[in-house]
Amino acid sequence: MPRPIEALIHTEALAHNLRRARQAAPQSRVWAVVKADAYGHGIERAYAGLSGADGFALLDLDEAQRVRTLGWRGPILLLEGCFEPRDLELCSRLDLWHTVHHEAQIDMLAAHKTNAPHRVFLKMNSGMNRLGFRPSAYRGAWQRLSGLTQVDEITLMTHFADADGPGGVAAQMAAFEAATRELPGERSLSNSAATLRFAGGQGEGALVAADWVRPGIMVYGSAPDYPAHDAAGWVLQPAMTLRAKLIALQSLQPGDRVGYSGAFTAEAPMRIGVVACGYADGYPRVAPTGTPVLVNGVRTRTVGRVSMDMITVDLTPVPEATLGAEVTLWGRGPNGSLLGIDEVARSAGTVGYELMCALARRVPVSVV
Questions:
Q1: How many other C-beta atoms lie within 10 A of the C-beta of residue 279?
Q2: What pLDDT score does 210 carry?
Q3: Are the beta carbons of 315 and 271 closer than 8 angstroms?
Q4: What span, in angstroms and rounded, lies between the C-alpha atoms of 173 and 344?
Q5: Where are the domains positioned within the chain?
Q6: Which of 222, 248, 284, 366 could pair covalently with 274 via S-S, beta carbons 3.0-4.6 A apart?
Q7: Is it the case that residue 122 has pLDDT exceeding 80?
């Protein structure tokens, strides 16, 4: 039989979370962000749940081709734009919209020969200091683009650096509004955190929501501002479950040590279970003793170090657990139980994004 580990992708959860984005920004159109192979969920597996979006936003031309192959005829946006001139040919062929965030991309467009002008998203560096034109250079970039016959509509765009934290979006909104005042074109500003925290209602909320919102992590059921809010607090549903089974049991006496370097020592008699999951499956190697896990839907903890193919868990809260018992590493467990991926990630000193994207290719995946 196959090794007893699998990931489940919950299509209805993806659709539900997309609806939550619409509820949070009811006047906006919604990009479903599917970069990094739909945050590790797989574009082909996630597509049915996300096909209610107004467009798909991603990074790679290969990913764009895959979305078109699935039958999508609506907008597709390249979030980092084109990397070399020949990319523009594929943008024309696949009818892709693309981001412009530095002068070289404008130069490529100016030299590009095309019969159909391109829809571009002009990105401002309003404080993130990754991609984009600084506010002082933004209007000049817009003027260059607007003078090209190769360019059709120009959407104005920025990305918030601290929408999930105490800094919020006010300072970046002010910079963006000042630099784009009286410039025509649609706007796209909000990521998941800004969509959930600031985009609702009228007034400032409507400005933050703008014409397009770009929900990413929330679509996959993770809270962008965890631990201030968990996924349930935002009424989000986990779109990925990683589950395995117990493949061995051990009874420990006080002083017995577990795993490499004996990182855990039993202080009293106890039973532990060995789970068919390790860091080669995408479970974080740095997860310490105490990382939450469900056994038969009952909450317990890991003990000792994570190995390549196995982890060990404390069975004290689950005395009836036997070989083959179901272990939920994150996501949906039996009997309606849930273990949020954000909680597991926080214990390991990382974020839910990384765990989703790190799911190993050797793990079988099913769409539910």
A1: 19
A2: 96
A3: yes
A4: 33
A5: 11-222, 240-367
A6: 248
A7: yes
Quick check: 167 and 161 in contact, CB under 8 A? yes
**Helix segments in the chain, DSSP class H:** 11-24, 35-39, 43-50, 61-69, 86-94, 103-111, 135-146, 170-180, 192-198, 204-209, 341-347, 352-357
**Residue 136 token pair:** 């002082």
Q: CA nearest 97: which of 119, 114, 112?
A: 119
Q: Is 0.85 surpassed by the pTM of this model?
A: yes
Which pLDDT belongs to residue 201? 74
Residues in the chain: 368
Q: What angle do helix axes 11-24 and 43-50 make, rounded to 10 degrees? A: 50
> Does 202 score more than 80 pLDDT?
no
Q: How confident is the model at residue 203 (pLDDT cuts 50, 70, 90)?
A: confident
Select from 316, 333, 234 the least CA-distant residue to 17: 234
**Fold adopted by 11-222:** TIM Barrel (3.20.20)
CA distance 135 to 140: 10
Of all residues in the chain, what percent carry a pLDDT higher than 90? 97
Nearest to 313 by CA among 213, 246, 365, 223: 246
> How confident is the prediction for the chain on average, in pLDDT?
97
Alpha carbons 304 and 258: distance in angstroms, whole number: 6
Residue 139 has pLDDT above 90, yes or no: yes
Within 10 A of 277 (CB to CB), how many other CB atoms are there?
Answer: 28
What's 240-367's CATH class? mainly beta
CA distance 17 to 236: 6
